Amino acid sequence: MTTSLSGRLSAELSNLRSSGLLIKPRVLDGANRARTRVDGREVVNLASNNYLGFADHPRLKEKAAAYLREWGVGAGAVRTIAGTLRIHEELEQQLAAFKHTGSALVLHSGFTTNQGVLGTLLKEGDLVISDALNHASIIDGLRLTKATKKVYKHADADDLERLLQENETDGLKLVVTDGVFSMDGDLAPLDKLIAVARKYGAVTYVDDAHGSGVMGKDGRGTVHHFGFENADDVIQVGTLSKAWGGVGGYAAGHADLRELLINRARPYLFSTAQPPAVVGGLVAAIEEVQRDPSLMRRLWDNTHYFKAELSRLGFDTMGSVTPITPVLFGEPEAAFEASRLLFEEGVFAVGLGFPTVPRGSARIRNIVTAEHTRADLDQALEAYDKVGRKLKIVG
């Protein structure tokens, strides 16, 4: 008997409910800021990726409004037909200069950027070696290619070298890693990984979604943090959401990379260009992070304070060294209950379990921002202490 649509939907939703994995997103009643209203309650927001407070920043809103008035609501076409406005190319030139790369191209999201760039670069006969904890968008992007795929142990340069030794090819060799890993908050050891890649003639591909705007001078990213800017054998991709407050993705690297992507990257070829207001906000974001060094300083001051205080209270932050600060609860039921109790205390922090993170490592992922005040963080820490004691996570 043929499965009906109604039957399929009902069965899939039932499976999600019974496994405790059915997602019901909370609804924000205001702008995504360090303090906001969620489901009618005022909360300290530790759930967003708004690292620099740009999502509701007055300078970004002013520039977005100006671009909206001058250039309209939408671009009106895909970039390769009639959708490339001068402001798109100006943003890409600005981004390449900021990243210290030969070229840059803006795409529609970080997810589609990985699909587009990996799909363009990799062919049958090529070799790609990917970190075991890389983002889902990298995994999905690689599934679309015919390259030989291998996975090295997380952040393990020795295992990467083993795989490069064991898998010779005359094709392109690509080593793929996140810059900052989104669930654990640790850094890829790019100094070691790039050295190994170069030893075997491989190109290094860094998804810096959580490092761009956070790591390196003026937020230039993890590649800059490790001193590899101006390197033609390193490709940087990432989002223009998160720290940048808008939406979109970018690919930056070799001077010829942009031109090839314009001609071959399917998400670029078949999607309408970014709206002018989004472009204006992104232009302002890159200007602002260089104009106001206090943004990065506050981000990292808040990060160090929050981590230290969580550790003092007895929580396991899993060795994170970035503003992404996981708190380990182990089992998903404990993480989800802690999230619920924190919300009752006025703190919005989301629990994560399998399959988002490995079994036995369910956690709450907290992200502090430059916009949080010390009072915000102290309120969150007081709530964590109360909830942790109630659940017997800390003594």
UniProtKB/TrEMBL annotation:
Pathway: Cofactor biosynthesis; biotin biosynthesis
Residues annotated with N6-(pyridoxal phosphate)lysine modification: K242
Domain Aminotransferase class I/classII large: 42-383
Protein's UniProt keywords contain Thylakoid: no
Keyword Isomerase in record: no
Chemical reaction(s) catalysed: 6-carboxyhexanoyl-[ACP] + L-alanine + H(+) = (8S)-8-amino-7-oxononanoate + holo-[ACP] + CO2
EC number: 2.3.1.47
One function term, GO molecular function aspect: 8-amino-7-oxononanoate synthase activity
Cofactor: pyridoxal 5'-phosphate
Keyword list, A-Z: Acyltransferase, Biotin biosynthesis, Ligase, Pyridoxal phosphate, Transferase
Gene Ontology annotations of biological process type: biotin biosynthetic process
Self-association state and partner proteins as the record states: Homodimer.
Function of the protein: Catalyzes the decarboxylative condensation of pimeloyl-[acyl-carrier protein] and L-alanine to produce 8-amino-7-oxononanoate (AON), [acyl-carrier protein], and carbon dioxide.
Family to which this protein belongs: Belongs to the class-II pyridoxal-phosphate-dependent aminotransferase family. BioF subfamily.
Name of the protein in question: 8-amino-7-ketopelargonate synthase
Organism: Deinococcus marmoris
